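Table S2 (text version). Query chain:
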Amino acid sequence: MDFIKKHLAIIGISAGILAMFLYGYAISRQQKYGSFYSNPSVARPFAVTNEDGVGAATSTEFIGDVLPNTTDLYNLGSPAKAWKNVYASGTLAVSGSATSTFVGPVSSTRMVVGFGSLGNPAIQFSGDEDTGIYRSAANTLAIASSGSIALRVSDVSITAAAPIVADVDNARDLGTVSTRWKDGFFSGTISSTHFTASGGVTSSVFIATSGGTTAVPSFSFVGDRDTGMYQDGAGNLGFATDGTLRLHLGAAGTLVTSAAQVYPSTDNFSSLGLPSLRWATLNSINGDFTGTVSTTNLLASGTVTTTNLSVATTSAATATYYLCANALGQVFKKTTACN
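Corresponding structure-token output:
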């Protein structure tokens, strides 16, 4: 019995020494690494890996907030050891510096950022901090490029501070046939190979186009591109119908037509010239008039048909003679109008 008591005493002393040792070790570890408390009924123990981090064998649930003991000092993950996804049902608030950087995609039903500025947009790009999106005024969204305003969008207008250029030549439209812009205001030049307007085109200076051709006049009509007006050489105007030159207005005032016939729209109604504004010379193969032909000189190599032909002379006694024909076809001169 004494032997057993003796050995039990030795075991008790050894257990006490071991307990004191383990307690001291735990205290030192606590002082070095800190303390962690978890629900002992859940088999998800913490594993202390080093002085800088904490790992868990499986997913670990927390009841309450997880806070650093010093603000704006510690990181959640590192460039070498990054968390894969972060899920939050409330607000993800990032503050403490003028610029908050997100590397990788950010998915959210709503993201709230500061106003930003032209030189420091609220949404910008890593390595290109003066290019991005910011709020320039109330209800106004602005896009900055290289620290300069490029586009401003408000509730009443869209303003571009730089030229708007199509990415491919002659492949993009400004509006459609069924969805058109109402008015266009320009202070400079509109340069176009084909310019089509269904409404009015007004310019306080001038409207300039390319010269055009007979087949494709510079000024033509929707659905009838080969009919219109074009530049028929320097200083000349050409008027084409169905792709053919019909009327040429020369730089010297000459008027040339290629039409087979030129006639008034109504018979025996229109005059060619006026008594006080007469044509100088009429050169014709044939002339067919229902009224009076009054001229100083009549040059015709063919037939002149008219009711009255009046030819003025230089005679002081008789200023005007009428050449009349009788029923037999005989021509005679009269000083009065023919019957």
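Notes on Table S2: The mean pLDDT is 74. The chain has four domains: 1-82, 115-164, 204-260, 280-339.
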